[in-house]
Amino acid sequence: MSISKGDKAPLFTLKSSEGEDVSLADFQGKKNVVVLFFPLAYTGVCTDELCHVRDNLADYNNLDAEVLAISVDSFFTLKEFKKAQNYNFNLLSDFNKETATAYGALYDEFFGMKGVAKRSAFVVDKEGTIQYAEVLEKASDLPNFEEIKNTLSGLS
Question: pLDDT at position 85, please?
Fold first, then answer.
């Protein structure tokens, strides 16, 4: 299943790195949401991607957007990853792979591992509609952050 612009965003509730439930529905009517799927904590490209978001979080805040970064790692792993990199946004655990599956963002196989999230980016507007969708096949590629920000600018 693939998600496209104009589709209703699949709702989810996932454990944050702090062990708290975070739901996409919590932001409806309040904030736009950037949903980023990344393969695995502590890997080079994933660390670079999330450090880029960390270092530019003010841009997302100024565009009235919340960033939710999701991987299939346990929330215990994500807690340590967040602490090690000083991430200033939510890292969410999709350990059961249900959310990545709903968004069409799951590899069948990734370096011999089954069920790892594909690097992906989605912008969900305040009404819960997908306004930007990018699912990358190559884990070494990064999302188009400029297009994400342009999309958010158009929603302001």
Answer: 96
